[in-house]
Amino acid sequence: MDVKEFDYELPEELIAQDPIEHRDESRLMVLDKESGEIQHKIFRDILEELEPGDCLVINNTRVLPARLYGVREGTGGRIEVLLLKRRENDIWETLVRPGKKCRPGTVLNFGDGKLMGTVLDVVEEGNRLIRFSYEGVFEAVLDELGQMPLPPYITHELKDKERYQTVYARNEGSAAAPTAGLHFTKELLQKIRDKGVDIAEITLHVGLGTFRPVKVDRIEDHHMHSEFYMIDEDAAEKINRAKETGHRVICTGTTSCRTVESAADENGHIDPKSGWTDIFIYPGYRFKVLDCLITNFHLPQSTLVMLVSALAGKDHIMHAYQEAIKERYRFFSFGDAMFITGNPKKMKEFGE
């Protein structure tokens, strides 16, 4: 398939620059994946869309304040470092700007020496391996010196770091937020539990590779970066129970979707496990576990638009996006939400 089939024109003013005041008051488009029918609601109305026996899957990863600003020892030149992936102990794979100034052996200084880094090697795509040294606990130093790694299309300053975290975030390790979960409040989650919906917590540490643009003409030629995931016994049991009893598995965000689809066997059964996934879901993919998806509105020509098109059909998705633009929905990380719904008994495989 041609990547241009997943393109659309978005007015710049519809890119959300700030989180909405109350998380669950963002707008919610409900899209029936079989018929293409669209309804317009408020996110807290998601409670009406869920049924007793359903399983709601959420990604409890926590975003590291992974953007660091410092200087190069000896020259004083300014440097920006974005933590991508912990390789071992205090060695991280990072994205460095300007990269040409950071050859192996370069020493970096952050926060007047509170955190020091030494460039060890240059790896895939020009990323740098950096060994960090510090006093105390790395996460505490990072919380003091680091900034949230907001996407480049967000130009406003984020006043409250917690607004780029879900209310259930607890396992640190992501370079970006699983943004579909930003709409939930603790109160709304409790109402969902009280309705008889199981909530399964999984972990996928989001890497920036998920959001990198597709640079090939044919989407089949695109290669996804690997991300680490974990599914414990409790989560696996809840997901399997929903499937076995004919209820729906509803994933919050593309990260939860990619996790359960990576972990499942051919029959859709999930065992507790952890590992790395580079799964790329696009039209023609047959879902083994997921029935419905809560998601945000994604960038044109992105792998995330391709994933939702695999679930609801490209024509339905492109029409829904045009409707969202017409109705002035807010797009991307701090934007509004879409619920792609359907009955598991009516499951069908969508092609191009």
Q: Could you characterize what this model shows?
A:
- With 352 residues, the chain is of the alpha/beta class.
- Helices cover 19% and strands 28% of the residues.
- It contains seven helices and 17 strands.
- The strands form three sheets. Strands 2-1-17-16-14-3-12-13-15 form a nine-stranded mixed beta sheet.
- α6 packs across α7.
- The chain starts with 26 loop residues before the first strand and ends in an 11-residue tail after the last strand.
Map the helices and strands:
Elements: E1 27-32, E2 38-42, H1 46-49, E3 55-59, E4 61-63, E5 67-72, E6 78-88, E7 91-97, E8 107-110, E9 115-122, E10 128-134, H2 138-145, E11 171-174, H3 186-194, E12 198-204, E13 227-231, H4 233-244, E14 249-252, H5 253-263, E15 273-277, E16 292-296, H6 303-312, H7 314-326, E17 337-341
Parallel strand pairs: 1-17, 3-12, 3-14, 4-11, 14-16
Antiparallel strand pairs: 1-2, 5-6, 5-8, 6-7, 7-10, 8-9, 9-10, 12-13, 13-15, 16-17
- Number of distinct beta strands: 17
What is the name of the CATH topology of the largest domain?
A: QueA-like
Number of individual domains: 2
Range of helix content: 10-25%
Spatial strand sequence of the major β-sheet: 2-1-17-16-14-3-12-13-15
**Are there runs of 5+ residues with pLDDT below 50, and where?**
346-352
Average of per-residue pLDDT values: 94
Largest sheet, in brief, is: 9 strands, mixed
Main CATH class of the largest domain: Alpha Beta
Work out the radius of gyration. 21 Å
Terminal residue distance: 8 Å
Label the structural class.
alpha/beta
**Overall 3D geometry?**
globular
**CATH homologous superfamily assignment of the largest domain:** QueA-like
In DSSP terms (H or I, runs of 4 or more residues), the helix count works out at 7
> Strand percentage, roughly?
25-35%
